[in-house]
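Exercise 7. Predict the structure of STAS/SEC14 domain-containing protein from Roseateles oligotrophus.
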Amino acid sequence: MSNANNKLNLLSKADGPFRPHGRLELWSEGSVLRVQAEGPFNREAVLALGAAIKEFYQILPPDRNFVYLLEFRSSLMASPEALAAFADFLKAMSTAKTAPKAVAFVVAAAVEGACLMLPLFARLYADAGREFSAFETMAAAEDWLRERLRSLAD
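Solution. The predicted structure, encoded as tokens:
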């Protein structure tokens, strides 16, 4: 179902004095913007993610309801600077009216930092007014997002 030709390695979007820490790939599948991520993450990785998502929004159909599905592997850890940059990114998306309708994280129990970082991300999304939930399996996350998209279509 994924469009491999549409995959974007976010290291190519890095701009700044430091290299991004972590690995991020981004692609779209219909109304779902998918991110496959391996942390830990620094500020530069978050800035690269923001630049890539901004680029995607320039080619996606306007006025379409989108949801995000982020799958984390290895580590969910992020520096305080990365979290601050992420909060700024969420605010900028709200201002630009490009915020997703819902966001699902897939984080297996074995992912480093899951217990520490998930509540922090949940708070950032809540502060930004986003519907957010985290799941241990891809199937559960996909089901939840499908239901969100269905409710938007009604």
